[in-house]
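Internal tracking record. Fields below are filled automatically when a chain is submitted to the structure queue. Please do not edit lines marked as system-generated. If the sequence contains nonstandard residues, flag them in the REMARKS field before resubmitting.
Queue: standard
Priority: normal
Entity type: single polypeptide chain
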Amino acid sequence: MSKIRLGMIGGGLSSFIGIVHRIAAYIGEEYTLVGGAFDTDYDNAIKFANKLELDPSRTYPDIDTFIEKESALPSDQRIEAVVVVTPNFLHYPMAKQLIQAGFHVICEKPVTNTAAEAIELEELVNKHKVVFALTHTYTGYPMVRQMKSMIAEGIIGDIQKVDAQYYQGWINPVIHDPEKRKSVWRLDPAKAGQSCCMGDIGVHAFNMIEYTTGLKTLKVLSDLNTLYADNPLDIDGTAMLRFEDEVRGIVRASQIATAEENSLRISVYGTKGALKWEQEDPNYLYHLEDGEPVKVLKPGHVYASEFAKQSTKMAPGHPEGIFDSMANLYIGAAKAIRGEEYIDGAFPTIRDGVRGMKFIEAVLESDKNGNTWAEIDD
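SYSTEM-GENERATED OUTPUT FOLLOWS
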């Protein structure tokens, strides 16, 4: 079976996340990168294409030219799926153009700047019958998928409490200097959107809760901090969550948690036990039960769920990481693009993008209204 012809918007010479996407796409051996619009500087885009030994004629100066030229090619030659790895404010307009042109889309998060935009994209995805994969990368880890399977099987009983944390400290060196913080695009509403901390990392914690538990958040009550009056976007915050059946949860997110690197953690407590997972040590899932020693589950073993087994590419004892996690999303999207059967949850969809944007807006509304409950509709 031929590989899916892949294009990329952004992700050129200076892009860290572009490298992650390309490696992830190659790991599963389902895609081949053909071309794209890699940089706003066309000379740099050509240099990048030459470095990757891509056909320069399939390297375009902008997305409009990309769509025009690729759409004119025979169906067995044109690019089929496109990765959008640009700054946040470009996700919506570029994804919209690509969907309307009939391309499958793999998009970085946040999916859009507003929930209304995300809903519009969802409607377009359904109308044009394309696959839309949103790269909430952490859902691709085998032990996260093991966690999802165990919760669905009722192994920890009925859920009573969920606690998700995402702490980083990267913004500390610039946030205390008025001039330096003006140079950070994630603090610029025109480029980052409505939120910095919650929009960038808090939404990951929120997505992990809904992904692993299957719960739908009904309400949030948040308290956000910009630290300085002239800083327009949040860099720290806490959101209390309410789900069905009186279940409670919390999302704690910060970019000023000094010396923290990428501390994403989730704990789910049920009537019969609990499960804990940490992104910085992703190959261990902890299963807790009253009166029993802690069980430590690892990838690649016979006890793993079918979903976890499908998401594991190495033998036991060989750690898997962020590239492998992202690769699992690409493999899932490839099955959908080809019309093959895949397990629900194989990749985040536009629906996850809509839910994420609604969470962000509810958090901002709750904080703005004096820390009151704000509802999230479905």
